């Protein structure tokens, strides 16, 4: 992932769609926790890959801690490692874990953080008992190459092939790193946005909103707020994989087994949450905290904030409010249960 989510508590406040997605993997994660193996130091080690500011991790991690202790006793020590990129707002994360009433924090449960990409190994060999990643591995570790627009749905045939290869390489790298960290019998649950359709016809479900963001960017160029060169350099490094792409690393065997893969057509959780009331502002804020940092990362920080306000809080919110009230998204989720083979 080439950038982090918006910090300062903003991601916690406006990532309710991601929170709704995470709930669909909680029961699978809870079940996995009941058999999580104990690590060499006598603790069950749990990793949260792509934590951002932490609020959306609290419910699944609380469920996991409860399940571990139901299976192994109330005194079972648990280590929780939250991972994200170095520029992530870890201060907000630690405040959230310490202060949020929904926190997993309790005696004998310890919190730590790792500030590195999850496309590399983050924990010692054979130390992890349980892993969780929610709405994170659609982010690529870097921009693979140019696009005609800023979103992968606009790729030409040649560009699509470049991005598809990068998507495959990154997913394989993520799994290779996890296989090294996981104890025999450990499990990993991944909840992530998936593609509708195949090949160049694939869609993420966010195309309507991204088309409006593109119109907003053109307006900023026309008004002299953003230059043509700045606009041309803007790219969001996200790749929504198909079923075959999610399954591909497991077909040749190896240390990891894909025990479960299912898809859920989630629709538009922001519409469901708001009932249409304040929907335009909710969508604008959600896209700003999730995609704004990567889209605008080439701008200096002071301009970045001003452009984000013009683009998302201004243009996008107005455009959605001006149209007939209806959902703008059609999200699809992949929910995976992955196990490391027992030796």
Features:
343 residues; 7-stranded mixed β-sheet; single chain
Label the structural class. Answer: alpha/beta
Q: What does the main sheet amount to?
A: 7 strands, mixed
What is the N-to-C succession of helices and strands?
HHHEHEHEEHEHHHEHHHE
Shape designation: globular
Placed side by side, the strands forming the largest sheet appear as 3-2-1-4-5-7-6
Number of strands: 7
The whole-angstrom Rg is 20 Å
The mean pLDDT is 93
Helix fraction?
A: 40-55%
The fraction of residues in strands falls at: 15-25%
Low-confidence stretches: none
N/C terminus separation? 32 Å
Helix count from the secondary structure assignment: 12
Tell me what the structure shows.
- There is one protein chain.
- By secondary structure, the chain is α/β, with parallel strands linked by helices.
- 42% of the residues lie in helices and 18% in strands.
- It has 12 helices and 7 strands.
- Helix 2 packs parallel to helix 4, helix 3 (26-33) packs parallel to helix 4 (55-72) and helix 11 packs antiparallel against helix 12.
- The mean pLDDT is 93.
